[in-house]
Design a protein that fits this description.
The structure holds 2 protein chains of 2 kinds. Chain A is mainly alpha-helical. Chain A has one domain. Helix content of chain A is about 70%, strand content about 5%. In chain A, strands 1-2 form a two-stranded antiparallel sheet. In chain A, a hairpin with a 4-residue loop joins strand 1 and strand 2. In chain A, helix 1 packs antiparallel against helix 2, helix 17 runs antiparallel to helix 19 and helix 17 packs parallel to helix 20. The relative contact order of chain A is 0.11. By secondary structure, chain B is an all-alpha fold. Helices cover about 75% and strands about 0% of the residues of chain B. Chain B has 22 helices and 2 strands. Chain B has a two-stranded antiparallel ribbon. The longest helix of chain B has about 30 residues. The N and C termini of chain B lie close together (about 5 Å). In chain B, about 60% of the residues are buried. Classes of the chains: A mainly alpha, B mainly alpha. Chains A and B meet through helix 5, helix 6 and helix 7 of A and helix 19, helix 20 and helix 22 of B.
Chain lengths: ~500, ~500
């Protein structure tokens, strides 16, 4: 049943591509397809168990190499599938105004969504990789054709970073396949295979870094801000909302589940680092502080959000690298939370503000008194900003709290630095909010800029995303009941052994 | 290879040859030759004054009939026939290669239908068929002399085909370069062959292998010299760096159907021939260097190209580098790499032929195949642009297209056999990531860039319905072979297991 999320997306993409010039048809078709995938996910929820990675489809694909078409879902997948559905629907609502090559836009969009669903459902590493790459190509075209500032540069940079990351993953995949001698690319089989001593030491960082590139890990994050800025609103929302999660999910599901031994302590410490865990936790922490600091000094509104994404994704990686149950729980919840919140922020900046004012320069926005011109956007941004800085009641709070709790067990110093990142987060959100929406009028008593009103699809999308972040923030168990058993499942025993729990 | 030496293919004198069996064994080649002559006669005698449209179609359809007949003959011959000291050696693998060559030739001939670069239609098509015959003979012989003759038949046909566009100075320049370098490489190859003959006192490849394997130490330097010569000649044929100089010029200057053929059929025949010929363990270090340099140079040089055909030429060098991994297997297990090799070349051939066909369409519509001329292609003809997307991404190795699976299959099997050379796989994958940049440049122009305002309005759709249909078919094949490679791969595995 769940497999239909993939087929519906790709089928919708094909139909949109064939739709010709019928823009309205493509729009509605895309919306229906995205809604249908949500419905499929929701309907199959009762049949799933959070703690077991239950097979959805399993048929031989390439018997001569032992590759199977194997889809499966557990609690972690479910959370991310839900996120994908929500982000897809919201993204389509916020791109209702696309009227240039509309059918192609939604074709690429749905192809991207299909690839993302495929990644979150794959239980075979080869299949995982296939979907992972399928998701990259449409991103390039979405940005290069419908983007704004330096779109071709941003698109190419993003595509190359993604492909270099996936090349690292592919090397790891072939290495694991060849060295394990398992004649299978099933992830569980590969996780249980015996590798020669030292194999994980070299291959784990390779695969982890390959995925972490897409998760925006410092210092490989620089595609993210430029890509987000260049992308059209819906693509930014998907990029920050789900595509960066692909990377984080790959880190957890492939690198950490398959090669947990790569996290074992080294024989010698280098500086004060004693394992790859320390290295990546350090990079994640740097990313948190660095992203937040840069967000504080940007003039371009979208760059603020772009760098804040790098910072928030740092929490995901830090949570994963805490190697504690609570930290990993928090990381998965943060994937969902950031997906929704970043989507909302990008929607406000890209669609509600930029599409109306045609500028994202904070200094130019200040005299426009946007809070009075488009109050709905202002309210949405204030709420999204509060969610972003992790106020209780929004989904960011339980997520980042758990990450910090987990990280504290592992390394208090880094946790303090990450906490510093949150404080800077308050500052940059406040600054952006103040400058963009509540600026002083150029002349006393000047009327606010007159802008087209917020349309219904925008309102619907914003309400959808806000409702999600509030629901999870007020009642985290909604998702934690899926995440906790999944992280506690035997699949991650290897991690617990390495972490010494 | 041991299977064959076990068969003890002894030297036979001519009187012992069963001439009717020999005729039967070479019937496919003979049929093609007759077809080629018929094409010439029909074109020159009856169609001279008619339009290109008719002449290319008539020649093409006649050739299709010949190709079909040849294919039926190949399918109906005995699986294994070796006669006349290995001069004719029909093997399952050879048959697969022959069929592949025929299919590729047919595809190339399809894309001549819209061409009008020459008034010598009959000669052009006949030469394509001669080149195919050369390639087929290369796949069905184990005798050094026949190998050399068939290689020259292929090469000489290709030199002329390259020069066929007399209106273009680039075509002549490319052909001259191709010819001069080709002559040199043929000389090296012949020198290597003569040394092998001197060492082994036989022209049969398997007897030479057997002698080399047990050669006394004092012969070793001779064997190494001979291997070196053969490898260099081989590197030239498949455009592996550093003997690739001719490739970019030829890919850019040759008429499109000729370039397609050089990029696909010629490669298939040459790679298969040398896969049989090269003493792998001796040539290993050389081949490692060739592979690594080809990947690096092909990909890096392609980054700077502004002409799509030239870009494809450099990417062909890179692909030769990837394919060379199949030659570096471990001893007897090398055999299991052959299906991966053939699968790679076949899927690559479809993509490269399709890409050339589209480059040729763009050339006819806008005057040249520069990157800038691809601007707005997706608006002009969405179908062609979509096919280009598929072909280019397949060459770049993006799943779920055939090119990705071909790479994965080859690399994974190679790593299993030669874990010590893992860095070659890592290099190949890293270079594939680099190649994305220039492949995306092509797609960027086709999909993203708006045509410059100053550009002249492109000529109306120059591609016929049939051409576009065949293009779409090729694209679908690339997609299907990527999503479900098992049937073809299983077929190849089945056909190629055991022998060779």
């Amino acid at each position: 049943m769940l497999a239909w999320t993939i087929y519906i997306s790709f089928g919708g993409a094909l139909l949109c591509a064939l739709a010709g010039k019928r823009a309205a048809f493509a729009r509605w078709l895309a919306l229906l397809a995205a809604l249908a995938t949500c419905v499929v996910t929701l309907v199959s929820l009762p049949h799933l168990q959070a703690g077991t990675w239950a097979t959805v489809v399993r048929v031989p694909w390439l018997p001569s190499l032992g590759i199977e078409y194997h889809l499966a879902a557990d609690g972690i997948s479910v959370v991310l599938l839900l996120l994908t559905g929500i982000a897809a629907v919201a993204g389509i609502l916020f791109s209702w105004n696309i009227d240039h090559r509309t059918n192609e836009f939604f074709a690429f969009y749905l192809a991207l969504i299909g690839g993302v669903y495929g990644v979150f459902l794959s239980a075979d590493l080869f299949l995982f990789f296939v979907f992972y790459e399928i998701a990259i190509v449409p991103k390039y075209f979405l940005i290069a054709i419908w983007g704004s500032t330096r779109r071709e540069y941003g698109a190419m940079k993003l595509a190359l970073y993604s492909f270099i990351g996936s090349a690292m993953v592919l090397v790891g995949l072939i290495a694991a396949y060849a060295v394990s001698g398992a004649h299978s690319t099933d992830m569980v089989t590969l996780a249980q295979a015996h590798y020669p001593a030292g194999f994980a030491f070299f291959v784990f960082p390779l695969v982890f870094t390959g995925f972490a590139v897409l998760a925006g890990m410092w210092p490989f994050h620089s595609w993210a801000p430029t890509g987000h800025v260049a992308a059209p609103t819906a693509a930014s929302m998907l990029l920050a909302g789900v595509v960066m999660k692909l990377g984080a999910y790959g880190c957890l599901r492939v690198a950490m589940m398959m090669l947990p031994d790569g996290l074992a302590p080294w024989a010698h410490s280098v500086l004060w680092l004693t394992s790859w865990r320390d290295v990546f936790a350090l990079l994640a922490t740097i990313g948190i502080v660095y992203g937040a600091t840069l967000a504080l000094v940007q003039r371009d509104f979208k760059f603020v959000i772009g760098y804040s994404s790098v910072s928030h994704m740092g929490f995901v990686l830090l949570g994963l690298m805490s190697l504690t149950t609570v930290g990993i729980n928090g990381a998965v919840l943060q994937m969902f939370s950031h997906g929704v919140i970043a989507g909302l922020l990008f929607a406000v900046v890209g669609r509600m503000v930029y599409a109306r004012t045609h500028t994202r320069d904070l200094d130019a926005l200040a005299p426009m008194q946007l809070a009075r011109a488009i109050p709905f956007a202002a309210v949405t941004f204030v709420l999204a900003g509060m969610a972003s800085i992790g106020l209780p009641g929004f989904s960011g709070f339980p997520a980042e709290l758990q990450v910090l709790l987990g990280a504290w067990h592992a390394d208090p110093v880094m946790t303090l630095c990450a906490g510093l990142g949150i404080i800077i987060g308050v500052a940059y959100t406040w600054r952006a909010m103040q400058r963009s929406f509540f600026g002083e009028p150029a002349a006393a008593g000047a009327a606010p800029a007159s802008l087209p009103p917020i349309t219904f699809p925008e309102r619907a999308g914003a309400v959808l995303l806000l409702a999600c972040t509030l629901a999870v923030g007020l009642y985290p168990r909604l998702l934690m009941q899926w995440i906790t058993p999944a992280v506690a499942s035997p699949l991650f025993d290897g991690l617990r052994k390495v972490a010494g729990q | 290879m041991n299977n064959f030496s076990a068969m003890n293919v002894s030297a036979m004198n001519l009187s012992a040859i069963d001439w009717s069996a020999l005729f039967h064994a070479t019937l496919p080649e003979t049929a093609l030759e007759v077809t080629a002559l018929l094409v010439l006669i029909v074109d020159i005698a009856f169609l001279r004054r008619t339009s290109h449209w008719l002449r290319f179609r008539a020649a093409g359809i006649l050739s299709f009939l010949g190709i079909l007949f040849a294919a039926v003959c190949i399918l109906s011959t005995q699986p294994i026939t070796v006669m006349a000291d290995g001069m004719v050696a029909i093997t399952p693998a050879g048959k697969v290669v022959e069929l592949g060559l025929l299919a590729i030739t047919a595809l190339c001939l399809f894309f001549t239908f819209d061409e009008d670069f020459t008034d010598h239609v009959g000669e052009f098509v006949a030469l394509m068929l001669f080149a195919t015959i050369g390639g087929m003979l290369m796949a069905t012989t184990l005798h050094l002399l026949v190998i050399f003759l068939s290689l020259e038949l292929l090469s000489l046909s290709l030199y002329i085909l390259t020069a066929f566009n007399k209106r273009s100075i680039q075509s002549s320049e490319a052909a001259l370069k191709y010819f001069l370098f080709g002559g040199m490489s043929a000389a090296m190859l012949l020198f290597g062959f003569s040394l092998f003959y001197g060492i082994a006192d036989s022209c049969n490849v398997f007897q030479i292998r057997a002698v080399i394997d047990n050669a006394p130490a004092q012969d070793l330097h001779l064997i190494i010299l001979a291997t070196l010569m053969v490898v260099l000649g081989f590197a030239f044929k498949v455009a592996a760096a550093p003997l690739h100089w001719w490739a970019p010029d030829v890919y850019q200057g040759a008429p499109a159907p000729a370039a397609m053929f050089i990029g696909s059929a010629s490669k298939l025949a040459s790679f298969y021939l040398f896969w049989n010929l090269l003493p792998a363990n001796l040539a290993l270090p050389l081949l490692v260097i060739l592979a690594a340099v080809s990947m690096l140079w092909g990909n890096l040089a392609a980054l700077a190209q502004t002409n799509v055909r030239r870009l494809l030429g450099y990417s062909a060098i890179a692909h030769s580098g990837y394919i060379l991994l199949a030659f570096l297997g471990n001893g007897d297990a090398t055999r299991s790499l052959l299906p991966a090799l053939i699968f790679y070349i076949l899927t690559y051939s479809i993509a490269v032929i399709g890409a050339f066909a589209i480059a040729s369409i763009v050339e006819r519509e806008t005057g040249s195949s520069d990157l800038a001329n691809f601007a707005g292609l997706s608006k002009r003809s969405p179908l062609t642009a979509f096919c280009l997307l598929i072909f280019v991404l397949s060459m770049a190795g993006i799943p779920p297209l055939a090119g990705f699976f071909a790479k994965f299959n080859l690399f994974a099997l190679f790593w299993q056999q030669q874990p010590g050379l893992w860095w070659l796989v890592a290099l190949a994958i890293a270079m594939s990531a680099v190649s994305l940049f220039y492949y995306l440049q092509v797609l960027k122009h086709a999909y993203v860039v708006e045509p410059a305002e100053t550009a002249a309005a492109p000529a109306p759709q120059s591609a016929s319905m049939l051409t576009r249909f065949v293009l779409l078919l090729c694209a679908l094949v690339v997609i299907i072979l990527g999503c479900n490679p098992q049937p073809l791969l299983g077929l190849l595995n089945h056909a190629l297991s055991g022998m060779f």
